[in-house]
Amino acid sequence: MQIKSPEFKQNARIALQDANLQRALGNLKAGFPQKRAAAVARLPEFDQLRDEARDLKNHILEHLDLYLEEFEKNVVANGGTVHWCRTAEDARKKILEICKDQDAKTVTKGKSMVTEEIDLNDYLEKNGVTPVETDLGEYILQLRKDHPSHIIAPAIHLNIEDVADAFHEHHKRPKSNDPAHLMREAREMLRKHFVAADVGITGANFLVAETGSTIICTNEGNGDLTQTLPKTHIVVSSIEKLVPTLEDMTLFLRLLARSATGQEFTVYNTLSSGPRRPGDQDGPENFHVVLVDNGRSDMVGSEFQEMLRCIRCSACMNHCPVYGAVGGHSYGWVYPGPMGSVLTPQMVGIENAGLLPNASTFCGKCEEVCPVRIPLPKLMRHWRDKEYEKHLSPTSVRSGLALWSFFATRPKLYRLFASVGNRFLRFKAGKKGRTSKLPLASAWTDHRDMPAPSGKTFMQQWKEQNR
């Protein structure tokens, strides 16, 4: 997927003027946040579980090498194979190699953001293997030659009319805007691919070191068909998705669905523990796990390690006012919203994604709803620091910070400047209480009014209240 993160501002302007997108995003604002709140209210111990999950994830990351080795040992004991891939290119090549070994012409794919991250579909197609997305949202996007705009609801930027148009164009069936009809049509079209596929590729929500198992959590049956019908099942997962035991996995399952869709549990929670054994009625003959690093091991022990706690629930973006206004495509790469604003600079470089950690109001809602308590605003500030250190931030920003620093390190001058500025803003705002034009502040006032201060400066009020 082409990196368009440097174009965030242009993308956002286009998104704000796209009436169709804004209508679709309106469904998000009235959907996931309310359902999450209701689900959390029904579970009194939810915050206690968040603390436990945070602590467990921290423990896992401190001993990640040991759990990865245990996971590999048990996958092999179950008859499977683990492939270690440091880069996205390594992962793509290994998956293609497995497909070629099976003489695969068609592969079915369950929903997987890691395969989006490594740009697997385009790579397979260029090398003679046809991937077929089987998740309904991903299938719609594949027909439209589009990319996900959300990590659990990939087609959330579309309306029902967009789906009807795509199906009518590609399926050559009478057009219908009835959701039930469209689902039946998709099921019918995909069924032949499930049966014909040589290889099935899925992601994994968690990897269980104790048993060498992987699990996918879905609300459609496509994931089960993808991993049981073909002769070969390939699991593609990033390295941080490990949990020590099956019991530990259930802790995260209790948090995941409630945080993501507001469900008590996802409809399908399917464990895979290797290839089909003698006596098994179904399952693949070959089982491969492709473990993708792609910059994650560099995060271990760094100021960004806490990001590796992420369980991909999407709660941060579901509650983010910036994401809710401009949608996922504006972020210009695979991972949108607050979590993408931390992950994307790590994976594509801060020089290509510097605008993302700056695209935040720092309202703190993302941290407030995160099921594993990732301090996302703090991590975005770390990226802002790195951007500044590398002299990548705009000259106007650097000059403004230097000017502020000059006054902030001289308390008497700072208090004088704040007092004068307070009076000037109130005078400029007049009776309206706001101004639409300020010297040296056009970046703000070109797009919004500047409200007048409501009274004395903070330092004046602090002094009066603490006499």
Automatic annotation (TrEMBL):
<dbReference type="Pfam" id="PF11870">
    <property type="entry name" value="LutB_C"/>
</dbReference>
<dbReference type="Pfam" id="PF02589">
    <property type="entry name" value="LUD_dom"/>
</dbReference>
<keyword id="KW-0249">Electron transport</keyword>
<dbReference type="InterPro" id="IPR024569">
    <property type="entry name" value="LutB_C"/>
</dbReference>
<keyword id="KW-0004">4Fe-4S</keyword>
<protein>
    <submittedName>
        <fullName>L-lactate dehydrogenase complex protein LldF</fullName>
    </submittedName>
</protein>
<keyword id="KW-0408">Iron</keyword>
<dbReference type="GO" id="GO:0006089">
    <property type="term" value="P:lactate metabolic process"/>
</dbReference>
<dbReference type="InterPro" id="IPR004452">
    <property type="entry name" value="LutB/LldF"/>
</dbReference>
<dbReference type="GO" id="GO:0051539">
    <property type="term" value="F:4 iron, 4 sulfur cluster binding"/>
</dbReference>
<keyword id="KW-0479">Metal-binding</keyword>
<dbReference type="InterPro" id="IPR009051">
    <property type="entry name" value="Helical_ferredxn"/>
</dbReference>
<keyword id="KW-0813">Transport</keyword>
<dbReference type="InterPro" id="IPR003741">
    <property type="entry name" value="LUD_dom"/>
</dbReference>
<feature type="domain" description="4Fe-4S ferredoxin-type">
    <location>
        <begin position="301"/>
        <end position="331"/>
    </location>
</feature>
<dbReference type="InterPro" id="IPR017896">
    <property type="entry name" value="4Fe4S_Fe-S-bd"/>
</dbReference>
<keyword id="KW-0677">Repeat</keyword>
<dbReference type="GO" id="GO:0046872">
    <property type="term" value="F:metal ion binding"/>
</dbReference>
<dbReference type="InterPro" id="IPR017900">
    <property type="entry name" value="4Fe4S_Fe_S_CS"/>
</dbReference>
<dbReference type="InterPro" id="IPR024185">
    <property type="entry name" value="FTHF_cligase-like_sf"/>
</dbReference>
<dbReference type="Pfam" id="PF13183">
    <property type="entry name" value="Fer4_8"/>
</dbReference>
<keyword id="KW-0411">Iron-sulfur</keyword>
<dbReference type="InterPro" id="IPR037171">
    <property type="entry name" value="NagB/RpiA_transferase-like"/>
</dbReference>
